[in-house]
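We modelled the chain as a single entity of 308 amino acids. Its sequence is:
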Amino acid sequence: MPGVIEFCAGAGGLSLGLEKAGFKPVALVDNDIHACATLRQNRPLWNTIQADIKTFNVSAWAGVDLVCGGLPCPPYSLAGKQQGANDERDLFPEMLRIVCQAQPKAILIENVRGLMHTKFAVMRARIDQALNDMGYNPYWAMFDAADFGAPQTRTRVFLIGLKKGATNPISWPFKLKKMPMTVGEAVGDLMAANGWKGATQWARQANKVAPTIIGGSKKHGGPDLGPTRARKAWAEIGVDGLGVADCAPDIDFDGMPRLTARMIARIQGFPDSWHFYGGKTQQCRQIGNALPPPLAEAVAVEVARCLL
């Protein structure tokens, strides 16, 4: 099994995809105590390390097959200030340092679609040049999680670097031919868990793919489904996005229901067996910031083929 070191591992969305694609986690690194606790309680045998990537030395794992990570999104998010390399949260320089130390066969970096904006063309070119100088061929692609089985519109950018002369060419994953699940199909049973009489009708009219789940930053307040525009999109499906419920609606509930953290996790593509550490706010933050496991698996499978 090819070994992988993952940075900014979060709640394990990418980790689960890598696991299903046949990768063995050598180390998973994140600086958030709640995310690390989530990883440890779900996979106690994984080598989960709470540490800051900016001070992390990876030389002990030099020659590992894959170095990867979902780097912080705010520097490139269309919803933010798009400061890019001028944002203190930009970790691309640190990731390039890690690659230089580890000299893996392959690199996989995930981020938001805003990274492909023309505003960052020069930055992407610099990253390509840096990887070329270290002996890697860089490849960029963008995929929507809804095309790979997640009941949610979530477009993500992937940068893959392959060691020259030591890997096979990349073959990007193809979209699934079947239609993605709707929100009603995905979580209708969870909405009916407490016997809500209106659950069947709600699931029938919640007949769209979900809008993008919002994770938010540590400065964000309580759990909800995003700003006004996002909440409007949820309302069109029949979901009150102003907050997150503690449990499914009661039998005689009347009105527009809220999602629970478990419902949000399922829409994100996590299996029900995957549990999140912390209170509701911490759980929703971890879920919302994660890469959907079905999309992670599809990309990871293609990276694994490059290593054969």
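As a brief sanity check on the tokenised model: The CA atoms of residues 215 and 289 lie 5 Å apart. The first helix runs from residue 13 to 20.
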